């Protein structure tokens, strides 16, 4: 199992969360909520209003999201879904645990309770330079006050 941190449309209550709970695509178990240890710019960009975390450490905000344990099948699905490695790149980032629901008395659970763990995150280094000038967000909600409605793939 691998740990993945999601900050955009794959979170609970967001338009693509349905993929996280579709067991035909693999297993994804919600573990808790967290935020990036380093600051990153989270922007909403492109004609489909997609959330992107730009891989520019030290700029922007501590980005909030959710931590999942996923099996190899789900990780492969997420790579394809996120257009990895062209649109997003999957990299390890340090995530500060804000709330942990993971069960068991494993070393992982103790580490989570102590605060910081490494998770795979889909961020991007392949973006138009003007995206750096877009507003930065600390969390993403597709119906947030930014007013930029996400366009589902099936509607594009």
From TrEMBL:
Pfam families cross-referenced by the UniProt entry: GGACT (PF06094)
Residues annotated as the enzyme's active site: 82
GO MF terms, alphabetically ordered: gamma-glutamylaminecyclotransferase activity
Signal peptide as annotated in the record: none
InterPro entries referenced in this protein's UniProt entry, alphabetically: AIG2-like_dom, GGACT, GGCT-like, GGCT-like_sf
EC number: 4.3.2.8
Top-level EC class: lyase
Keywords, ordered alphabetically: Lyase
Catalysed reaction, written as an equation: epsilon-(gamma-L-glutamyl)-L-lysine = 5-oxo-L-proline + L-lysine
One GO cellular component term: cytosol
Stated role: Catalyzes the formation of 5-oxo-L-proline from L-gamma-glutamyl-L-epsilon-lysine.
PANTHER family reported for this sequence: GAMMA-GLUTAMYLAMINECYCLOTRANSFERASE, TROPONIN C-AKIN-1 PROTEIN
Family label: Belongs to the gamma-glutamylcyclotransferase family.
Name of the molecule in the record: Gamma-glutamylaminecyclotransferase
Originating organism: Spheniscus mendiculus (Galapagos penguin)
Gene name of this polypeptide: Ggact
């Amino acid at each position: 199992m691998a740990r993945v941190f999601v900050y955009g449309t794959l979170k609970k209550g967001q338009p693509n969360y349905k993929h996280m709970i579709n067991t035909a695509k693999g297993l994804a178990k919600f573990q808790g909520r967290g935020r990036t240890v380093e600051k990153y710019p989270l922007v909403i960009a492109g004609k489909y209003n997609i959330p992107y975390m730009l891989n520019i450490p030290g700029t922007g905000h501590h980005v909030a999201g959710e931590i999942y344990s996923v099996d190899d099948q789900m990780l492969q699905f997420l790579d394809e879904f996120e257009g990895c490695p062209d649109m997003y790149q999957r990299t390890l980032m340090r995530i500060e645990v804000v709330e942990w629901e993971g069960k068991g008395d494993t070393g992982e659970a103790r580490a989570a309770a102590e605060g910081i763990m490494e998770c795979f995150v889909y961020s991007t280094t392949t973006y138009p330079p003007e995206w750096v000038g877009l507003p930065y967000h600390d969390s993403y909600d597709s119906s947030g006050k930014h007013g930029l409605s996400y366009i589902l793939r099936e509607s594009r």
